[in-house]
Here is the input.
Amino acid sequence: QKEVEQDPGPLSVPEGAIVSLNCTYSNSAFQYFMWYRQYSRKGPELLMYTYSSGNKEDGRFTAQVDKSSKYISLFIRDSQPSDSATYLCAMSRSGNTPLVFGKGTRLSVIA
Amino acid sequence: DAGVIQSPRHEVTEMGQEVTLRCKPISGHDYLFWYRQTMMRGLELLIYFNNNVPIDDSGMPEDRFSAKMPNASFSTLKIQPSEPRDSAVYFCASSLGLVGGSHKNEQFFGPGTRLTVL
Here is the structure.
């Protein structure tokens, strides 16, 4: 079993829909959780950062962490065609360990 | 700052040839990472450096791969000899630190080098 599991999709939604992207993980030591967005033929860029459990909101984006279930989510409200990209979850155990990435979920928002 | 710079952006080579990928990290960043991305395996960490010293190379697939960081502003990833299964997008990233404490220590990625080995 991989440390981080993420459904690769693709996921296609109409403009304005609420999008839910998810990752599960097996290592209970993970404490730092991130979402990166990667546009086609570009490098990933940090979108959201969360420490431990709870929610974090930034504009149309909300990140949730449920450590008891080892499950993290990214919600996108009022999705736009410009949100079309691959979304990768990433997590880390501590300050001395590098990030472990999910495979990424490809999202298309159709106008 | 121009961000992380990688060259070349595209490389097409034949099996058995040596391939050298280059990276210039963001000035002042202490950490440099090399990743490989494929559809099948996603984004895999190959090796990372702290202050030019390799810290963890457990992700390097085999002895055909080597990486160096001779100074704070330059790193190379070399594949010799190359094989078709090495075809992938190779990313370099840099950060001030590893994630921890109150600092997200965001990793900044370069645009990647798309490698095709025929």
